[in-house]
């Protein structure tokens, strides 16, 4: 029996499992023992599974971590909150039900910040436990980086997939807004919430999206993109050298020197490989996105959480209370103006993207910050979340503290497949793999 290599990706495993039932049966059980051994240090999971028996289907034998704001009927869904510490939902989230039907092994619930907002859980960065893994999808990013699962679900309302992916040295993909139904996912801001993925390679997140796009009557914002297939044997089809737009934004000087140097070195390699790389200015998006996205998020968050805070003041954080206060301070007029601007900026971006295959920018200002109380700045992720366009973080190198640094690739709205093909081309040119961190048990 051939055993799975540590840190294997989804497609690697599916190829290995063909005609090798022994390896498939043993894999999740082995991963569970490894997770139990390092969990006292990593603290990526709220709960680990008790049954990892393999089921049939396209994802048979693949353990998938589920962010703990996504409902599961066979284990608690705490939403990162003391209010829900013993809560077991009556129904699976749409995406969890789909994963079960595809034969995936639901490999526990990964730690989330409180309701996917700013009050962090205990998860540490697997590259250095003194540093944050990012948030709010903290546990999912750390679990993939540590090699415990090859695929994990996250959500992004500002930067909660792309930023922790960069901090942990994995691929993080936020599809276009509405691509995956959020039924059974606890809302933070329905106009901004996205379901996304963490994995080790672009092919893996592409395969996940090809299986998980859909619509649900209970998610009014659902608008899945055109369907596509990904070959298990070959992954995505290759793409010719693309035309890439470099977006730096006015806040570029806030980025760490090492992050900027790595970004420019990556651009040089892409040019040498044949890409056309041009600077692109997006002044209105740069000037207005942060105010607009926060007006929408806090306004909708206040509507969702005000009553909960009133009922459970001793079990909700100051950060959640502050979110509600900020949202209640906005007028209906300011909220509607931000929503109108969101639609305008998305339309304008589609026009500005004409002739480009993708945008290249930073996913974060640098390495993961030290300490666990602050999960990092989302300002380089928020513009693309506001627009609802697909965005992906690729591992690209290490910073001065030997923590991962990433590169963000952004596509046009609902052009997820094209963006993924561009990202695979960039991934192949950079040819960088951070390997696996040595997490102490």
Radius of gyration computed on alpha carbons: 20 Å
Shape, principal axes of CA atoms: globular
**Helix count from the secondary structure assignment:** 12
Strand count, sense and barrel status of the largest sheet are: 11 strands, mixed
- Assembly context of the chains: single chain
Mean pLDDT: 97
Strands in their spatial order, largest beta sheet: 1-3-2-4-6-5-10-11-9-7-8
Q: What structural class do you assign from the helix and strand content?
A: alpha/beta
What amount of the residues lies in strands? Answer: 5-15%
The CATH superfamily is known as Amidase signature (AS) domain
The total beta strand count reads 11
Helix content: 25-40%
CATH class descriptor:
Alpha Beta
Secondary-structure element sequence? HHEEHEHEHEEHEHEHHHEHEEH
Terminal CA distance reads 27 Å
Low-confidence stretches: none
Q: State the CATH architecture.
A: Alpha-Beta Complex
CATH topology descriptor: Amidase signature (AS) enzymes
Number of domains: 1
Q: What keywords describe this structure?
A:
441 residues, Amidase signature (AS) enzymes, 12 helices
Write the layout of secondary structure elements.
Blueprint: H1 10-17, H2 21-42, E1 45-47, E2 63-67, H3 94-101, E3 105-110, H4 138-145, E4 151-156, H5 162-168, E5 171-174, E6 194-199, H6 202-212, E7 243-246, H7 257-272, E8 276-279, H8 283-311, H9 318-329, H10 332-352, E9 358-361, H11 382-387, E10 391-398, E11 404-410, H12 416-430
Parallel strand pairs: 2-3, 2-4, 7-8, 7-9
Antiparallel strand pairs: 1-3, 4-6, 5-6, 5-10, 9-11, 10-11
Helix pairs in contact: 8-9, 8-10
